[in-house]
Amino acid sequence: MPPKSGHQRAKNIDYEDDDIYSDEEEYYEEGVEGDGMSEEDKQQMAAATIKVKEALGGSFKVTETQIQEALWHYYYDVGKSVSYLKNKYAPKVPAQPKQSQKPASRFDQAASAAGVGAPNGKLSSFIDSTTVCAALNLGLESCYSTPPPVHFPISYNFDRLTEDITNFFWDTPWGNVPSHRLGTIIPQTVAPKGGLLGGSKLAALAAKRKQKQQEQAAKAEEEGNDADKAVALLDRLSVKSDRPALLAPSDKAPKPAIRYQRKRSPSPQPQPQVESDEEPDLGTTRPTMEFPDLRAQPSMFATTLCSKNDSRPAGQSHQSTSFAEFALPYTSMVEFKKVDPFASPSPDDIVQEAQKRGAGRPSKPKATPKKPAGDKLAEAVDKLHVEEAPRVKSKNLNVVEEFAKSEMKRMMNFVVIGHVDHGKSTLMGRLLYDLKVIDQRSVDKLKKEAENIGKASFALAWVMDQTSEERSRGVTVDIATNNFETEQTRFTILDAPGHRDFIPNMIAGASQADFAVLVIDASTNSFESGLKGQTKEHALLVRSMGVQRLIVAVNKMDTINWSQHRFNEISTQMTTFLTTASFSPKQISFIPCAGLTGENVTHRNPDNSLLDWYTGPTLVSALDTSAPSPRPLDKPLRLTISDVFRGGITNPISITGRIDAGTLQIGDQILIMPSSEKATIKAIELDGEPVDWAVAGQIPTLHLQDIDPVHLRLGDIACAPNHPVRLIKSFTCKILAFEHVLPSSVDVFRGRLQAEGRIVRLSATLDKTSGEVLKKKPRIVRPGEVARVVVELQRELPLEVGVRIVLRERGSTVAAGLLEG
Ligand SMILES: Nc1nc2c(ncn2[C@@H]2O[C@H](COP(=O)(O)OP(=O)(O)OP(=O)(O)O)[C@@H](O)[C@H]2O)c(=O)[nH]1
């Protein structure tokens, strides 16, 4: 009976239980006795034997044992067994031994090869898998890392082992490569021949040459021609010096002298009909062998860049330079030869020539002989330089004097603040419309657009709210500016967002304002809800930012029938609150108005008898009577950047911001902090008009040069280079608490500037009016109290004494104050 093969055992293994076998007994399963076959095996074997016999036919000479051996090996696979038996025991046909013979597989060969050295007899014990792998020339690494031993019966014939292996793999196609088709690796002893795969026409020509050369050499030797020998020797020497590695492959076996020459790059295009001059003349020239240069040739670009020192004699044309060795497509065509690409000046030459002429310099005569391309390129690179922008000439004006004698109108900036939707933008839109800053046509257009999206009541607000986001949401997001004039004053409106999410933007607007207009919705409940919201917060913020004058526009009076009672109620409540927030009652004005209808904004409506009880000024009159803030013109320049933008080709980088102190004029250099980068003022615009200078209190647009935009950020300070703002990381400030203040992390706001910091110390609580210390080192500062605290910043910021800051924590304003040092 055939041995129990590894396959058979594997069939019945419960892998979950027995993954690894520790000793050979375990390979035999229980219930298997004697011949090693189970009852099931025996039945299968009997049935399969009958089928194999039928398939082979009665005339086929094979014993039952041979059939069963085959079936055992092929897991009772009748087809395979039949094939095997036919191949194994079929009578050999002497006439066609090769065709009929089953091709030997790789495995067959390997196994046979191993068998050559093996004792051709009976092995006295089993052969383990290492031996099998070695026999198959596979090596152990291709077997299992822990190879399971393969057992063969005692007294197994080694010849049969190779046969079995051979037969087992005979049907694997990749193992059945006929021996005559097996590749042979022959170590290279000579340099490769020309052509991609060494079989080109040139190679054939070279071979011919070589043969001819050898014949000549033999002939010369016969004739004792010493001269030829010397030439041959010289050849060998020169070759060695040129390419020692390639041409002296072995000292022991010197090769005949062959002179290699650089292979010219063939044209990638089909050769034209014209006979090429470069066709080797085998008859007249020394026998040579075309050989591809194994070292990569430098590219044309690299050669051009690096060939500064041209050794060519002066006057030599480009065609005769080393570049000519790099064949270009169509170069051998007649048409191509007519074209001299260097005959006319290059585009670079033309540009340079034009530039010279433009600069008024006489153009140099064309250099003859022509310089090599590499030199020209190097020269051109040397000449490359960034055109410096023409220096901006300063008129060196005495700006303070200019301002004094300018007789220009007063200039004032006011910020419009208040709770969301109380009508700030509508009120400003109405004001601009009634003052004819906005024409009827524009307002009609806005009305139509607003109607189209169902927001007709926002048409006037859209005069200020110009972004699509603001218009679609019906909410102001960022500060919107606009200008208008009265008889006495030129105003800049800073319309702030009312929504609490945009308080940082409101702070930025407030930091630029001389005074504020607080808009309050007088309708039922709106005023009250505003008090809990941003009405109070905004009022406190602007006061903390240094605003002293406050005009309260009691708006939407049309919704309450111009109720005097309501107006008085609101006025009383607000006066109480504002005075506690340090506003002087003299600086507060209350104006009843309706932005939507325009009542009492720029004019009184004589037909509106409901407002007869009011005898005070209109809103515009109230604005006009406000006193401007003092202008520190004689102080060093300080401008807080509130916007950075690209103004276009002529003005690539521009900034906007209020001048807090000092003056500036065209041509001035300014220092940007904290980047410490300088810039030059190229042009100045004020309310869209070009001007030569600007002074403190104004919000000009400065067009800059000599600075990279990366050095300009919102909240940065533009200052005089000789009086720069210091960068500080820690400061003491006097604050008015909006909420309970404790040592904690805070966001520090100054204009558009926002930075992370921490209140590290509560130094003292102070008296509101006198500023005297009430309590040192308090544990907490309560809302409404004034205190001195120390703040540490995460990064250095341009802050100095007198600057107003706001401290916020998680979206709420906790305090605002003044930097002390
Ligand atoms: N009846 C009436 N409605 C007004 C008046 N003023 C404004 N409104 C309406 O109030 C709504 C809000 O007006 P806005 O001007 O957008 O309010 P706002 O304060 O600028 O809003 P934010 O800037 O987003 O805080 C709009 O529907 C206006 O039509 C007014 O005097 N009377």
Can you put this structure into words, describing what you see?
With 821 residues, this protein is an alpha+beta fold. It folds into four domains: 180 residues, no CATH class; 227 residues, Rossmann fold (3-Layer(aba) Sandwich); 89 residues, Elongation Factor Tu (Ef-tu), domain 3; 93 residues, Elongation Factor Tu (Ef-tu), domain 3, CATH 2.40.30.10. The chain is built from 24 helices and 26 strands. The strands form six sheets. It has a six-stranded mixed beta sheet with strand order 6-7-5-8-9-10, with helices on both faces. It has a six-stranded antiparallel β-barrel with strand order 11-12-18-15-14-19. Strands 20-24-22-21-25-26 form a six-stranded antiparallel beta barrel. A hairpin with a 2-residue loop joins strand 15 and strand 16. Helix 6 packs antiparallel against helix 8 and helix 12 crosses helix 15. The radius of gyration is 51 Å and the shape is elongated. The chain starts with 5 loop residues before the first helix and ends with a strand. The N terminus is likely disordered. Bound molecules: guanosine-5'-triphosphate (GTP). Guanosine-5'-triphosphate binds next to helix 17.
